[in-house]
Amino acid sequence: MPVQTSSDKISLQHPKGASVEILLYGASVVSWKAPSPNDSAVAERLFVSSKASLDGSKPVRGGIPVVFPAFGPPTHPEHLQLPQHGFARSYVWTYDSTVMDNEAGVSVRLLLEPNDEIKAIFKKAFQLTYVVTLAEHQLSTDLHVTNPSTTEVIPFQALFHTYYRAPSADVVVKSLAGLKYIDKTASTDAERSTLRTETRSEVDVKQYTDSVYEDAPQSYEVIWPGDGLHIKTKNLKDLVVWNPQAEAGSKIGDMEDGGWNNYVCVEPGHVRGFIELQPGKRWIGQQVMTVVGGGKRSS
Ligand code: TA6
Fold first, then answer.
1. What fold is seen in the domain 3-291?
2. Per residue in 136-185, pLDDT tens?
3. Got the DSSP string for 225-250?
4. Hey, which of 88, 160, 264, 268 would disulfide with 233, CB 3.0 to 4.6 Å?
5. Residue 210 CB–ligand 1 contact under 6 Å
6. If DSSP codes are grouped into helix, strand and coil, which group holds residue 190?
7. Is the bond into 69 cis (omega within 30 degrees of 0)?
8. Residue 201, ligand 1, Cβ within 6 A
9. Is the ipTM of this complex over 0.90?
10. Ligand 1, atom nearest to 61 Cα
């Protein structure tokens, strides 16, 4: 069965060997296995900490948490009751339907609407739809935000907090040179909000890194010796690159020891400023992740 649903998760299986697991809790993608274009060997592409809670008691440390409607500690006046990174990653979504199921791709749709707990901390009506699509070498995630109100605007930020399984000593992110960014590892508020210019053509995460790039090209490569991915996005103008290294990672309770050696977070989002979704409108943000393997690079 290409799509299997149970009380707490959805599994997708592509006929060429790729697979995905999505927890209903947070619509968290917790596994993406895909064959390499080099030798067809199927490998896990996402990092999930062995200490992550997968029982719905807290957001998953790894995979692809969905960040909505606030990134980081909330700053918008209408978000001040929200937890860090909003609520989408910490409520149970529902399986809506299978969108596609053939050789080209296997795709499912999940939904999140306000429940009583969400209504207590976020006063806006909304509907979130999440479409996850698996192809042989590719995974796409599409977040649809719908504003059903006839009068109210929804201010929000959105981001895919994707943890790629990759050696942090060797991985680099390309296509960021020349961009403006803020460095959240800096020690003072003033330094953290200073806009800097990226000079590196290949950004590494050998040191504690927490950089928020703005107005990025929406096409990136995440590569390391022998393997790599290409990432393309729509309507997600910003990009966060995060790896805590031991300095900050050892303070994260659900991070496994040395986990920071095994991933890089490359997180497309709209997080510098806010989207103001007008009454009756829908916004769609998308990331498309393609395994390109080693030696092959997409343009
Ligand atoms: O996206 C990077 C970031 O905002 C970092 O500042 C870091 O704290 C990380 O997310 C993890 O946040 P979390 O709430 O999942 O512990």
1. Beta-galactosidase; Chain A, domain 5 (2.70.98)
2. 999 999 999 999 999 999 999 999 999 999 999 999 999 999 999 999 99
3. TTEEEEEEEES--EEEEEE-HHHHHT
4. 268
5. yes
6. helix
7. yes
8. no
9. yes
10. 15
